[in-house]
Amino acid sequence: MIETLLAAAIGFALGSIPFSLLMGRIFGGVDIRKAGSGNVGATNVARTAGWGPGLLALLLDAAKGAAAVLLARLCCPGAPAADLVAGGMAVLGHLVSPFLRFRGGKGVATGAGVFLVLAPGALCVAALVFAVTVALSRYVSLASVGAAIAMPVAAFLLGLRGGITLLALVVAVAVIARHRGNLARLRAGKERRLGERRRSDRRKAEASR
Question: Among 19, 57, 80, 132, whose Cα sits 20 to 30 Å from the Cα of 49?
């Protein structure tokens, strides 16, 4: 029980580190909560501070998910589900970070880091779904939702332990819930595609010419 609680604390503490916010401030001098889409995630960092900081934010968010699982295995060998608990809590920490007044990102990168350790084969399937969807539609939000749905399906079909499939399902539900606004904009035809500027940004660029 104590080791399980320790794993939960490790996961939540790592997951709550707002790397995207930090990258936006360090490299772009902006608070990404008040710029772009307002989301505390790597895509918004890329849009507001550049692709380099955005990629770094993505890698760091994934790394904290992977680190949570690995540290739980190292520190809590007596708790067989410690890695699952830490992984789930890392995603939760990202979603409701106390550093962001219990707000956060959408959990895609952190979840990917978690499953990179727990279920790399299933993650490859989800990553393929993400890549194909982005290539065909240029909608990162749609690709994220598609990958989230693919993850538990792939885990189940690959015969992974039930706890991993259940965690993948819970994370998928959380990711989809966090994309409600994006899905509404997709239905309305107002969602921005990858690399597409806001209309106001385009007008500013044209006015400066």
Answer: 132
